[in-house]
Amino acid sequence: MPVINHPCKESWQKMKPKITKAKANLFQLPLERVIDLDHPLVQLSREFDWDGIRGEIAVNFCDSNGRPGADTRVVLGLLYLKSAYSLSDEQLLERWVENPYWQWFCGYETMQYQAPIDPTTLSRWRSRLGSEKLEILLKQTLEVASRRKFLNPGDLEQVNVDTTVQPKAIAFPTDTRLYYKMIRILGRLAKKAGLEVRQSYVRKSKQLLIMQNRYAHARQYKRSRMCEKKLKTIMGRLTRDITRKLDFCGSEVLREQMVQLLKQSVRLRNQTRTSARKLYSIHEPHVECIAKGKAHKRYEFGCKVSVAVTNKSNWVVGIKALHGNPYDGHTLAGAVSQLTAITEVEPKRIMVDRGYRGHDYLGSALVHVAGSIPKTATRAFRKMLKRRSVIEPTIGHLKSDHRMERNYLKGKTGDKVNALMSAIGYNFMKLMRALFFVFFCLFKSLDCCLKVALCNLLTGRNHTAPLIASA
User: Fold this and answer.
1) What's this model's pTM, rounded to 2 decimal places?
2) What is the mean pLDDT of each run of 10 residues along the chain (471 residues)?
3) Phi, psi of 2 (to 5 degrees)
4) Which ranges in 106-220 belong to alpha helices (H)?
């Protein structure tokens, strides 16, 4: 796979942030004295093309306005570590100060005792880079795997594609809870804008919410429905009151926010049980209700995500968040175009499940739907089709180990970024395991005397007697 280059490297040099490294003195500890230079993170720090990534993302920064941003190497290294170890921004920086390997991976050569950036810097960088530039980080993991022979070129020609749901970090949407939240947000925004409403209904709405839950728990459903109806009436009354006084709002920004919120309030009031486009969250109005046929979880609230992995080695070569709850078969063309752009290799065989019958892909690759094996199929072909289901545990690892089980990033852009970050973290940890396995097999294959010499060299001590006794 080719090395990333960018034609605007000269213009990038103007905005390139500087690495602030303290000069070495007696009171600073060099990291190379306390870390293992064969550690997978140390090896990966040498394998990644940091300058190539800088050149690619340079177009997202302005070199003539404002102060230079945080150092690119530091922020990109933190993004890799965050996605790999499934940490929040605050937890990431707390552990970064304690871990010398993480500091070396981010480009530091001496021990640091303070966080290099503020946690909010990571959120601003994610917003600025977007899903398009974050694909470069995913591409880098595949390039390193291909360079170290962990990913064969032939593996990219046979891929498995499937869809899953990326749930959003919202409470379970009930009508009563949505009415109460809308009343609170409308009252808070009206107070901020200086609008004098007839009544805020803060205490009354909270009391109705509590009593509705109590009546429902006691199976007094008639009283529960009465409380719900009162909350809906209060929400409509407050909406009409704010609409009449909207012209007295002095701030245009608050006025625009109020208009959008009032539209959501009308949409929430008019929706019924059978409405096609329902509102499930006030702060995330784009959330959709998706049913994937799971016995333990009938409905999930979030967005659909298309995942593509290699058939033999399970490397994630494409991932894409999709909104509007599209049919699985209508997502195949977009998934194939994305993985072709990332890997620069067009697949020859695509394995999918039965949900992709009637797909929209019109390319040259052969699409094999599960359950349709020809009688003349060879043993190798049958084995390849049987490996279609290996994408399921991969999706499970993306969710449980890399923060795709509950997405905390805001908006549709946050859905796309979180899906890509989970794939980046999955490939990153796969690289670390592969590098550790290579070193472990190499050490295991050495003769006993060579092991003794290697241990003495690494530790500076004499381990001859214990090692020979254990051998």
Assistant:
1) 0.84
2) 44 46 63 90 93 87 75 93 95 95 93 92 92 93 94 93 95 95 95 91 95 96 96 96 90 92 95 90 94 87 96 94 93 94 93 90 89 80 88 94 94 95 96 80 55 57 45 40
3) -70, 155
4) 119-147, 175-193, 202-217
